[in-house]
Design a protein that fits this description.
Layout lengths: L1 E11 L41 E9 L6 H6 L8 E2 L1 H17 L4 E10 L2 E10 L10 E9 L6 H7 L7 E2 L1 H17 L3 E9 L6 E11 L3
Parallel strand pairs: 2-5, 6-9
Antiparallel strand pairs: 1-4, 2-3, 4-5, 6-7, 8-9
Keywords: Membrane, Signal
Subcellular location: Membrane
Main location: membrane
C-alpha cells in the first residue's frame, strides 16, 4: 500500500543587508516529528508512526538554483539504502536549510514522502526567495600614520609595519603590526601604549590607520 505524506516546512527570507552566517539567528524549523500524516485516498487510512523504520529507496531535491544539489546532498546524514524514520528525514531537510542559511539565500522548503510498506521515497522541493549576498569586499590600506612618538622616528616605526599601502587589512594583521611597533619600544626599554584608529576617509573599502602612541620614558 502506497501512502503520500505531504509536508510544507516553513522557510526563511533574508532582507536588507547581508548578515554573516555566524551572526544569524537560527531559522525556526519544525520539531523532528513535525510531518503531519495526511493520507490521500480511501485506502491510505493507516500511516506508520513517525519513528517507524523505513528503507530509503529514493531521495530527490528540486527547485534549487543558487546552491548545487551535490552540496545540499552532502549535508544530509543519510543515503539511499539506509534505514531511517520520518523524524530522521525531517532532520535531514533541516540540514539542507542550514546550508541555505550559511549561503545567505532565503527559501521555502516542502517535503513529500511516498511510503509503500517499509519503503519510502523522499521528495524535497525548494522555493528560493532571495539571492546570495555578495561577499564583503576586503579592506585595503591607504595610509598608516603615528602620533605621539617622541623617542622613535616615524620612519623607523613605518619600517616595522607588515601591512603596506594597497595591501589587504585584517584585524589580525593590525594586531601584528601593533606588536611589531611595541617590540621596537621594548628594545629601547621604553614603556608604551598603542591604540590603533581605523578610519574610512572615502566611505569605501579603503582604510587609513593611525597608531596613537603614548610613551613612558625610562627613569
Amino acid at each position: 500500500m502506497r501512502n503520500a505524506v505531504p509536508c510544507a516546512v516553513i522557510g526563511f527570507a533574508l532582507l536588507g543587508a547581508a548578515v554573516p552566517a555566524w551572526a544569524q539567528t537560527p531559522t525556526s524549523v519544525p520539531p523532528s516529528d513535525a510531518p503531519s500524516q495526511t493520507p490521500q485516498g480511501k485506502e491510505a487510512t493507516a500511516l506508520p508512526p513517525v519513528n517507524t523504520p523505513l528503507v530509503l529507496k529514493q531521495l530527490t531535491i528540486e527547485g534549487n538554483q543558487r546552491i548545487p544539489s551535490n552540496r545540499l546532498m552532502a549535508a544530509v546524514p543519510f543515503h539511499v539504502g539506509d534505514t531511517i524514520s520520518q523524524s530522521r528525514i525531517t532532520e535531514g531537510l533541516q540540514d539542507v536549510m542550514k546550508v541555505y542559511q550559511q549561503e545567505n539565500v532565503g527559501g521555502k522548503f516542502h517535503q513529500n514522502l511516498k511510503i509503500n510498506g517499509k519503503d519510502v521515497i523522499v521528495e524535497w522541493t525548494v522555493e528560493e526567495t532571495g539571492a546570495a549576498a555578495e561577499p564583503a569586499r576586503p579592506l585595503k590600506l591607504e595610509s598608516a600614520d603615528f602620533t605621539g612618538n617622541l623617542h622613535i622616528s616615524g620612519a623607523a616605526l613605518h619600517k616595522a609595519l607588515h601591512i603596506q599601502p594597497g595591501q589587504t587589512v585584517t584585524p589580525a594583521e593590525v594586531l601584528s603590526d601593533e606588536k611589531a611597533v611595541q617590540a621596537l619600544y621594548v628594545k629601547k626599554n621604553i614603556g608604551v601604549t598603542i591604540v590603533p584608529e581605523v578610519r574610512y576617509p572615502h566611505h569605501d573599502d579603503r582604510v587609513a590607520i593611525t597608531y596613537h602612541v603614548t610613551e613612558k620614558a625610562p627613569d
